[in-house]
Every structure is written in C-alpha cells, then in structure tokens.
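tool=predict chain=A
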Amino acid sequence: MSRSASKTTLFSTISQRAFTLLELLITTGVTALLLLAISSLFITFLATAYKSRISQNLRESGGNATRQIIDMLRNANEITSPCESETQLDYISIIGSDDLETIIREEDDRIASISANGKYYLTEGSSLSTDYVQNLLFTCYPTEEGKKYIEVNFNLKVGSDEIENNPRTSSLDFGSGVVTRN
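tool=predict ok
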C-alpha cells in the first residue's frame, strides 16, 4: 500500500471516531441543564435546613421561657399586678418564694425577670432580628376559689417581613396558663 493511501485510511478512521459539533453541543446543553437542576435542589435544601434550624432554636428558646415563667407564677407567694377580669398586662409583678418582688417583662428585646437579686433574661437575643420578642401579654382571671388564673402569650420572631417567603424569617407563637397556688 502506498503512503498516500495509508494516510487516507488513517484520517478516515480518525474522523469516523470523532464527535461532531452537534453532538458536543447537545451533550454540553444536557450537562448544563442537569447541573442547573442539581444546584437548584441543593440551594433549596440549604434554605430549608437553615429555616428548620432557626425554627428549632425559636421553639427551644420560647419553650424554656414559657416553662420558667409558669414555674415562677405557680410558685409565687403573691401576684401584685392587678388581676381583674380579662385584664391584659405587658408585664407582671409577683412576690416570689424568696419574698422578693420580681417583674417579668420585655426588655432589650428579650423576656427579662427583674428582682433585687438582679436581671435574668429568659430568652436569648437575636442578631438576625431587631424585634425578637413580640406581644408579651399576661392575662389575669380571678377564679371562684380566690386564686388567679394567668395566661402568658408571646411571639418570637427572627428575620424580617420585607421579602415574602424569606427563608431567613421564622416566627412562632407561645402560650400557656397557670392557676396560682395562693
């Protein structure tokens, strides 16, 4: 076989094994679409995981604060705030088991327990929100036995409502009630 004939055979064999431009474009397009779909799912997963973590932190913080407030009210020697039918208060004043007056109210965007022993925060603050604690309300109902039933309601919120369906925003409502022992 002559040299020119062998070169022609070699080039025709190589060109038959190569990809055409159309095949490369289709493969690149399909790969780009797959990568776009996968990255979209990954971003959605991250946003959902972040919102879930925020909600869990709110749930823990609000649950702990509610339990502490209910325990303080249940064990109080006296409720010194006015307790009239369905009176809503933004703070409550009690005489605790230590015979010190304690006020529970919102302060510094947290729920605070303030007494002569000092100030204790029942919720943590949030660096993600300037309005972490919202609508802290105490509602007092006198009972027939001469005791008092006190409802505690508040909302914890992280993030802002500026963007609809913001994955960095979460809000939970908390509420509970207790009948005083005295």
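The radius of gyration is 33 Å. Helices lie at 3-17, 21-74.
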